[in-house]
Amino acid sequence: MTHISIIGTGNMGQAISAIAAKGDNSVELFGKTDLDKPVTGDIVVLAVPYPAVDQVLAQRAGQLDDKIVVDITNPLNFETYDSLTVPADSSAAAEIAAKLPRSRVVKAFNTTFAGTLAEGTVGPLTTTVLIAGDDADAKAALAGVVTAAGLKAVDAGSLHRAREMEAVGFLQISLAANEKLPWSGGFGVVN
Amino acid sequence: MTHISIIGTGNMGQAISAIAAKGDNSVELFGKTDLDKPVTGDIVVLAVPYPAVDQVLAQRAGQLDDKIVVDITNPLNFETYDSLTVPADSSAAAEIAAKLPRSRVVKAFNTTFAGTLAEGTVGPLTTTVLIAGDDADAKAALAGVVTAAGLKAVDAGSLHRAREMEAVGFLQISLAANEKLPWSGGFGVVN
Q1: I need a surface site. Which of A129, A159, A175, B152 has the fewest CB within 10 A?
Q2: Any idea what the CATH number is for the domain that residue B142 is in?
C-alpha cells in the first residue's frame, strides 16, 4: 500500500486524488487550512500552481525529505500565454529538484488536462500519464499508482525531459485557451 | 490550384508529397540531383534534416523569396538524444525564418511521424498537423493542403510556438527511440 499526500485541492488535486484512491493506496488531500497537519505520504504531489510552489516548500520544510515529490506544474506566463516563467533551458521540475536535494522529484500529470485525468480517457484513447525523473524506483512507484487506476503510464526519460513535457503542456493549454482544442481533449498517446 | 515544391525525398518528403497529391495541387519533388531545376512552388517544403537546411538555402538562394516555406525539422542532437541543437529559447523555425526575411516561414509536420502522415491516422484518431507561423494566409494555405488530403490541421499560433512544437517532436522521437512508443503511433490530437 502506498501512502499518498496531495497538496492542493483544485481540479488537478481532486482528479489525482480520485486516481490514487482507485488503487490500494491511502490518500490525504491537503488544503490551505491544513498547515498544522504534517505531510507523511511516501509520494507527495505538489498540486498547486507553479507560483505557489515556493510557499509550499517553505511551509513543508523538512517534511519532503526522502519522499517522492511529484511536480505537475505548467509554469506559463498566464498574462501573455506566450512564454514560460522558467529559464528556456530548464524546467519547473528542475528548479524544484534543485530546491529539494533530499527528495526524488518526478514530473507527471502536466500533459493531461484535469478532465481527461478524471475521465480516464482522451477521446477514444485511454489517458496516458507521462512520467520523467532520474530515479527509476520513484517513477515505477508513481506508474503503479497510475496504472492501478486504469490509466496508462509512460516513462518519459530523465528529469531533463521535463523541459519538453512542460512545452507539451504549454502548447496544449495555449491551444485550448485559443479554442483550437477542447479542455476535454488535447494530446493523447497512441502506443 | 496550389503548386507545391518539396525538397527532400526521404520518408517525410515522400509522405508529404503523397498528401499534397491528394488535393487539387501540382507537386514537384526535388532530390539531391535536381540542383539545376529551380524551385517554383507557391509552397516550398524543406523536407531535409535540420543540418542540411543551410546547404539547401544556399543552393536555392533567391528562389524562396515571396514563397511560403515550410520547416518540418526536429533539430535533435542525434548522438545524445538528450538535447536540441538550437538555442533553448529559439527553434529551428526561428533560425530559418531569420535567414529567409523575404519568405513566409511556417512550422508544420514535425509532430507527426512519417508513418502516421502516410496512413492519415494515429491509432483511432485522424492525423492532425499542427501549423505555427506569423502569417495567417500562409498557415491557411498549408491547412488547405492538409485538409484536402483528409487530415486535420490545427493552427498552433505564432512562429514562437515552433519552440514548443519542436519540444513535442523531440519528446516523441525520444520515446520512440527508447521503444516507449511505436513509430506507427505517438501523440495524437483529440479535438
Answers
A1: B152
A2: 3.40.50.720
Facing B88 at nearest CB: one of A88, A130, A165: A88
Q: What was the ipTM of the complex prediction?
A: 0.97
Give the helix ranges, DSSP H, for chain B.
11-22, 53-59, 92-99, 114-119, 136-148, 162-177
Long-range interactions of B97-104: CB distance < 8 A, separation 24+: B97/B159, B99/B54, B99/B57, B100/B57, B100/B64, B100/B69, B102/B64, B102/B65, B102/B66, B103/B64, B103/B65, B103/B66, B103/B67, B103/B68, B103/B69, B104/B67, B104/B68, B104/B69, B104/B133, B104/B134, B104/B135, B104/B137, B104/B138
Identity of the residue numbered A43 = I
Q: Could you tell me if A130 and A165 are in contact, meaning their C-beta atoms sit under 8 angstroms apart?
A: yes
pTM above 0.80, yes or no: yes
pLDDT, one tens digit per residue, over A45-91 is 999 999 999 999 999 999 999 999 999 999 999 999 999 999 999 99
- Is the minimum CB–CB distance between A80 and chain B shorter than 8 Å? no
Is there a contact between B159 and B105 (Cβ–Cβ < 8 Å)? yes
Q: How far is A99 from chain B (nearest CA, A)?
A: 22
The total domain count for chain B is: 1
Chain B neighbors of A129, CB-CB under 8 A? none
- Per-residue pLDDT of B40-52, as tens digits, reads 999 999 999 999 9
Long-range contacts of A85-88 (CB under 8 A, 24+ apart): A85/A50, A85/A51, A86/A50, A86/A166, A87/B88, A88/B87, A88/B88, A88/B89, A88/B163
Assigned domain for B162 exists: yes
A145 to chain B nearest CA, in Å?
Answer: 19
Of A89, A130, A175, the CB nearest to B156: A175
Domain that holds residue A70: 3-177
Q: Is residue A122 part of a domain?
A: yes
